[in-house]
Design a protein that fits this description.
This protein has about 160 residues and is an alpha/beta fold. The chain has one domain. Helix content is about 20%, strand content about 40%. It contains four helices and ten strands. The strands form three sheets. A six-stranded mixed beta sheet has the order 1-2-4-3-5-10, sandwiched between helices. A two-stranded antiparallel sheet has the order 6-9. Strands 7-8 form a two-stranded antiparallel sheet. α2 runs parallel beside α3. The protein is globular.
Length: about 160
């Protein structure tokens, strides 16, 4: 896929868009900053139709905003290790003070199951719960497995790759 655009959102999150061949679906890859380094190169080497939006976020509010804006077919959440599902989580309510924006975030997020049927451990992942709270399919992958997870998901999806 070709990297076509990079920008910052209102929350200060880095965003990038990668576009493949015509057709296909829109996908979102969401990662915390500390796991983001290998992702652009993986997405540039991804062979597929549609587009992938990359979100490097700190906190759940930027993720929820990007999900509502992008309305992806599916979301790959990047975590230290791949997970197959996780319990409901409650993120304590707290205030976030950025350079130009102050907001509150927190709340209860549901249990989730990965769309990939991966035989991986279960574990807590607030970002995956946030995705599930909007009724979107989610996969949790380790940084080195993002391209593989997206490729497999596209292959399972009609008109996906």
């Amino acid at each position: 896929m070709q990297h076509t655009r990079t920008w910052s959102d209102v929350y200060g999150s880095a965003r990038a868009l990668f576009e493949g061949r015509a057709g296909g679906h829109g996908w979102l890859v969401a990662t915390p900053p500390e796991l983001a380094a290998p992702l652009a190169a993986q997405l540039e080497h991804l062979d597929g139709k549609g587009r992938v939006a990359l979100l490097v976020h700190d906190g759940l509010t930027p993720l929820l905003a990007a999900l509502r804006e992008e309305r992806p077919r599916g979301v790959v959440v990047v975590a230290p290790q791949a997970l197959s599902g996780g319990p409901a989580v409650t993120v304590p309510d707290h205030e976030v003070a950025g350079d130009a924006l102050h907001y509150r975030e927190g709340g209860a997020f549901p249990a989730w199951s990965g769309e990939d049927g991966l035989n991986a451990p279960q574990g807590e992942c607030a970002a995956a719960g946030a995705v599930a709270s909007l009724g979107l399919p989610v996969v949790v992958a380790a940084p080195e497995g993002v391209a593989q997870a997206l490729t497999a998901w596209m292959d399972r999806t009609p008109h996906g790759r």
